C-alpha cells in the first residue's frame, strides 16, 4: 500500500467494497512487462486474495517475459514457420503453468493454512489469422474470432480461476498467437465482465506534470495518442462497448496497487469510464450552469447559499462533470492548510442514478491527496448518510479549522463529517 495504515481500520473501511465486488466478474491482463516485474508474485498473491473474497476472476497472460526484445514489444515480428510456432507454444505453456503455480502458492509460508484455489485453462478462444498487413504475411499471428463464454462461465460458477494464454485455435486445426491486450478486451466483452484491469509500470495514466489521472473517459482516451499501447486501447473499446462497467489501469510495480485501486475511494490508478462524460476543472463559462445545479439544493436547504461572486472568486476550487457540453455535476475542494472542505457537491436530478456524484467525490479526494491534504470534511444537513457510507465519520464542530469554525451557522446546525486521507 502507499502508506502504513492500521490493518483493522483498513479492513473495516474496505468492507463496503468487499460486498460490492463479491460475485462480480473481473478480467485481468498481465503482459510481458508485468510478468518480468520483481513485484509480479505479489500481484498474483493479490489476485488470489480477490478470489478468496468471492471475485470471479479470468486472468489473461502474455508470452514468456523474455521472449521478445524490449523494442519488439507491441510490434512483434511475424511468425513465419511452424518451427517458430512450436517454440513459442512451448514457452507459452511454461508461462501458463508458472502462473498457475504462483497462484497455488501459500502466500505466507509461516501460516498453517493454505489456499484451496483451483486454476484451470483450456481452448476457450477460436482464432483466425491476421493475414497480410502492410504487405507482410503475419503467418501464425492471429486475432480472436469467438470466445467460448459458456465454458468460461461454467468454470467460474464452480469457483475456479480461469487462466487464458495468448493462444487461439482455428477450425482448420491451426494455432495462432494472439495479442494479450486485445484478447483480454474480447474476453471481457463476451463475458460482460464488471471490470477489465490492465497493468502498467506507472500508477495508471499521468498528466504532463507527472500527476496521476484518476479518471478518463473513452472519449478522452481516443485523443491520448501515445498514452497506451494500441492493443490496450482496442481492448478497452471492446469491453466498454460490450456492457462492461469499468476499465482500470493499475501499476504492476507498486506493491498492493491492485487492492488499493479496488478497495479504497481514491484508488491507485486510472479508471476508464464508458461514454462521453468528462470530469474537468471549471472555467468561467461554466458558472451559469453551476448556479443552475446548485440553486435548487440551496432552496431546499441542502446546500448553503453561494453568490455568483463567490463562485467566480473560488472557481479554481471547482470540478465539473461535462456530458457533451452539458454540465450535469459540480463540486469544490476548499483548502485550509492540511485540511480541506468538500462543498457544493451537486448533480443533475436526471443523472443521479449514474454514479456521477460518486465519481466527483472520488476526483475531489484524489485532488486533495495530490495537494498533501491530510483530511477532508463536509458540512451537511440532508446527505449525512451518503457521506457516512463513503468513509466519512461524524465529528464535533470544534474539529473544524478556525476560519471555518468562525463562520459556522448555528441556526443551520449542519452536521460535521470528517474523512482522513
Description:
- With 421 residues, the chain is α/β, with parallel strands linked by helices.
- It folds into two domains: 7-275, 3-Layer(aba) Sandwich (Carbamate kinase), CATH 3.40.1160.10; 278-420, Gcn5-related N-acetyltransferase (GNAT) (Aminopeptidase, 3-Layer(aba) Sandwich), CATH 3.40.630.
- It has 14 helices and 21 strands.
- The chain has an eight-stranded mixed sheet with strand order 3-8-2-1-11-13-14-12, sandwiched between helices.
- α3 crosses α4 (82-104) and α6 packs parallel to α8.
- Mean pLDDT is 87; it is low at 65-73.
**Average pLDDT value?**
87
Helix content: 25-40%
Instruction: Give the name of the CATH architecture of the largest domain.
Output: 3-Layer(aba) Sandwich
CATH topology value of the largest domain:
Carbamate kinase
The CATH first-level class of the largest domain comes to: Alpha Beta
Structural category: alpha/beta
- Taken as a percent bin, the fraction of beta residues is 15-25%
The side-by-side strand order for the widest beta sheet comes to: 3-8-2-1-11-13-14-12
Query: What is the domain tally?
Result: 2
Biggest sheet: strands, sense, closure? 8 strands, mixed
N→C terminal distance: 13 Å
Radius of gyration: 24 Å
Bulk shape:
elongated
Amino acid at each position: 500500500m502507499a502508506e502504513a495504515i492500521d490493518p483493522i481500520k483498513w479492513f473495516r473501511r474496505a468492507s463496503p467494497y468487499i460486498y460490492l465486488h463479491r460475485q462480480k466478474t473481473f478480467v485481468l491482463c498481465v503482459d510481458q512487462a508485468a510478468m518480468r516485474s520483481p513485484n509480479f508474485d505479489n500481484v498474483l498473491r493479490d489476485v488470489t486474495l480477490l478470489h478468496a473474497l468471492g471475485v470471479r476472476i479470468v486472468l489473461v497472460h502474455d508470452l514468456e517475459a523474455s521472449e521478445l526484445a524490449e523494442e519488439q514489444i507491441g510490434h512483434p515480428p511475424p511468425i513465419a514457420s511452424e518451427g517458430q510456432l512450436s517454440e513459442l507454444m512451448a514457452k507459452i505453456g511454461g508461462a501458463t503453468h508458472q502462473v498457475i503455480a504462483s497462484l497455488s502458492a501459500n502466500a505466507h509460508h509461516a501460516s498453517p493454512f493454505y489456499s484451496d484455489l483451483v486454476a484451470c485453462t483450456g481452448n476457450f478462444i477460436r482464432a483466425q489469422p491476421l493475414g497480410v498487413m502492410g504487405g507482410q504475411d503475419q503467418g501464425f499471428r492471429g486475432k480472436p474470432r469467438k470466445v467460448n463464454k459458456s465454458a468460461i462461465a461454467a468454470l467460474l460458477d464452480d469457483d475456479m480461476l480461469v487462466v487464458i494464454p495468448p493462444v487461439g485455435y482455428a477450425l482448420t486445426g491451426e494455432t495462432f498467437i494472439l495479442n494479450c491486450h486485445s484478447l483480454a478486451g474480447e474476453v471481457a466483452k463476451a463475458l460482460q465482465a464488471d471490470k477489465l484491469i490492465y497493468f502498467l509500470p506507472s500508477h495508471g495514466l499521468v498528466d504532463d506534470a507527472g500527476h496521476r489521472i484518476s479518471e478518463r473517459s473513452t472519449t478522452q482516451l481516443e485523443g491520448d495518442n501515445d498514452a497506451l499501447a494500441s492493443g490496450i486501447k482496442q481492448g478497452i473499446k471492446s469491453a466498454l462497448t460490450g456492457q462492461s462497467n469499468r476499465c482500470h489501469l493499475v501499476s504492476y510495480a507498486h506493491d498492493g496497487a491492485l487492492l488499493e485501486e479496488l478497495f479504497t475511494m481514491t484508488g491507485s490508478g486510472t479508471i476508464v469510464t464508458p461514454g462521453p462524460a468528462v470530469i474537468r476543472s471549471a472555467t468561467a463559462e461554466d458558472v451559469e450552469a453551476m448556479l443552475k445545479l446548485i440553486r435548487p439544493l440551496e432552496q431546499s436547504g441542502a446546500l448553503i447559499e453561494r453568490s455568483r461572486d463567490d463562485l467566480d472568486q473560488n472557481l479554481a476550487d471547482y470540478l465539473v462533470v461535462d456530458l457533451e457540453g452539458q454540465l450535469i455535476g459540480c463540486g469544490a475542494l476548499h483548502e485550509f492548510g492540511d485540511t480541506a472542505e468538500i462543498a457544493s457537491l451537486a448533480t443533475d436530478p436526471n443523472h443521479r442514478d449514474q454514479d456521477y456524484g460518486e465519481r466527483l467525490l472520488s476526483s475531489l479526494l484524489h485532488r486533495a491527496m495530490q495537494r498533501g491534504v491530510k483530511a477532508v470534511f463536509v458540512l451537511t444537513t440532508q446527505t449525512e448518510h451518503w457521506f457516512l457510507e463513503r468513509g466519512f465519520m461524524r465529528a464535533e464542530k470544534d474539529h473544524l479549522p478556525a476560519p471555518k469554525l468562525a463562520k459556522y451557522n448555528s441556526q443551520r446546525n449542519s452536521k460535521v463529517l470528517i474523512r482522513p486521507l
